[in-house]
Amino acid sequence: MKNKFYVTTPIYYINDIPHIGHTCTTVVADVLARLHKQTGEDVFFLTGTDEHGQKVADAAKEAGFEDVQKYCDDIAPRFEKAWRDLNIGFDHFIRTTDPRHEQVVKDFLQKIYDKGDIYKDKYEGLYCIGCEKFLTESDLVDGHCPIHPSEKTVQQSEENWFFKLSKYIPQIIKLIENDGTNYINPVGKRAEVLAKLRAGVKDISISRANVSWGIPLPWDKSQTTYVWFDALINYYSATQFVEAKKDFWPANLHILGKEILWFHAVIWQAMLLAAGLEVPLKTFTHSFYMIDGQKMSKSLGNVISPSQLIDAFGVDGARYLVATSFPRDNDTDVGIGKYKDKYNADLANNLGNLVSRLAKMGEGLKIDTSKIEYDDQVKEVIDDLRFNEAVLLIFEKWINPVNLKLNEQEPWKKDFEDKTRQELLRWAGGELKKAAYHLMPFIPETSQTIIDLFTGVIKLPKEGLFKRVS
Ligand code: MSP
Q1: Is 257 in the pocket of ligand 1 (CB under 6 A)?
Q2: What is the DSSP string of 282-328?
Q3: Of 14, 172, 339, 459, which residue has the fewest beta carbons closer than 10 angstroms?
Q4: Quick check: CB of 284 below 6 Å from ligand 1?
């Protein structure tokens, strides 16, 4: 029996088109999915789009669509295409307007309702449409939502259905404190969540009376499901209707940005506990890509799109740059200029150049064909999402020593027939093949090309692997 590995990205709101903020979470999930497939596991990689709620309905209107579904049908494929263009190997692309998902949401809600965990009450307070989130006064910074400071928060007052979130808080605290699997990662985030939990948590409204673009509650059709309640269930619903993935729940890993940690670390857990389902094994929360110190967002107009990166650096170049600049622990400033330097240094001048030189010098030489096993140390670092470190390690193990030895022994000064020259080039080709094998999750196509060049006999690449970008 193969081990199962189920990894997800957040499902993206389609009020926006994909930018490299979304790209980063998606590339991270893809690197992990590819690593786990490569090392023999049975993988389910899920991504998709979050299509209900006021924010999407407003965006549709603004774009001139009367029919919100038509707007969704127009935008969702752009996300899917953006990911395909980046060679993202997702197994299913989920859309929350898929009737199969909607049915699972209804069943989920009905189950919790029947159990007595949902009741009617009056909601009064602030709402940030940008976050699709109810806010308290203490959440505000200078009177604004900290994530969407340029947008207005609106005062809501309506009769809603509430979920007994507070009932599950002791259980969640216990899960976090005693849980050997450490479901909140990185570890630093655990204390943050615990402090908030201990400060007291109120029940949450899970329906909206004045938002028609959503899934109607099964027992009260005048209200629609709060968009987050609907969206979180995607992780579970896919395992109910994607044929080949029906036994994949619970997820091994949810990857998400830090602004949505609470939803994943607390609300989602409580929903699952209420429904009597298993909770996910791990969540990993990352920070943000910034541009000149500001978060990238549509409202600020400072976005870099994935296609811009592909145009400049090719598919694998784009993937490599996004993965190695992944803001794992801290917000990280990115920009095309910085990317260009990194691309030229690592890929064009180092790896690309080395492969071409070696292939030219060793063309026709027979090469070692023994099977390569994935290195445990590299795997561990990738599994801990320390991608930059993983890539450095790969360079240190299998690329830098080749550069060093070639420079020392200067095979280009020796005759083709020279035995030590041939031995050196064979060894070097084998090492580059190992490098490529380990870089596969990051740059799959180029890695395959390199592996092919150094399999059987050494062959010449058709054209330069990574052209310098000026
Ligand atoms: N629809 C919700 C998620 C529901 S999941 C059940 C949502 N969508 S979103 O379109 O706003 O995307 C949020 C995710 O995109 C973040 O959690 C993060 O993963 C990614 N990013 C968006 N902007 C980002 C940066 N500037 N930097 C890095 N990642 C960011 O929230």
Answers
A1: yes
A2: -EEEE--EEETTEE--TTTT----HHHHHHHHHHHHHHHHHHHT--S
A3: 459
A4: no
Cα–ligand 1 centroid distance for 379 (angstroms)? 26
Q: Is the CB of 256 inside a 6 Å radius of any atom of ligand 1?
A: yes
Residue nearest to atom 20 of ligand 1 (CA): 22
Give tens-digit pLDDT for 387-421.
Answer: 999 999 999 999 999 999 999 999 999 998 899 99
> Could you tell me whether strands 289-291 and 294-295 are parallel, antiparallel, or unpaired per DSSP bridges?
antiparallel
* 232 Cβ inside 6 Å of ligand 1: yes
Judge whether 230 and 216 are in contact, CB under 8 Å: no
Ligand 1 within 6 A of CB of 24: yes
Which atom belonging to ligand 1 lies closest to the Cα atom of 50?
Answer: 1
Q: How confident is the model at residue 181 (pLDDT cuts 50, 70, 90)?
A: low
With beta carbons less than 8 A apart as the criterion, state whether 298 and 15 touch.
Answer: yes
Q: Which atom of ligand 1 is nearest to the CA of 287?
A: 28
Distance 76 CA to ligand 1 centre (A): 15
**Contact yes or no for 383/28 (Cβ under 8 A):** no
Q: Is 458 left (phi over 0), alpha (psi -120 to 50) or beta?
A: beta
At 93 the three-state DSSP class reads: strand
Token digits of residue 309: 């990166």
Pairing of strands 204-205, 289-291: unpaired
Looking at this protein, which amino acid is placed at residue 324?
T
Residue environment code for 366-386, b if the CB has 16+ CB neighbours within 10 A, otherwise e: ebeeeeeebbeebbebbeebb
Q: What is the pLDDT of residues 346-359, one digit of tens each?
A: 999 999 999 999 99
Q: How far is the CA of 305 from the centre of ligand 1 (A)?
A: 14
Concatenating the DSSP letter of every residue in 363-427 gives: TT-B---PPPPPPHHHHHHHHTT-HHHHHHHHIIIIIHHHHHHHHHH-GGGS-TT-HHHHHHHHH
List, by residue number, the catalytic residues.
19, 22, 128, 131, 145, 148, 295, 298
Condensed to tens digits (0 to 9), the pLDDT of residues 62-93 reads 999 999 999 999 999 999 999 999 999 999 99
Amino acid making up residue 447 = S
50 C-beta closer than 6 A to ligand 1: yes
- Residue whose CA lies nearest to ligand 1 atom number 25: 21
Place of tokens 């080949």: 244
Chain mean pLDDT for the chain: 94
Query: Distance (Å, rounded) from C-alpha 392 to C-alpha 346?
Result: 10
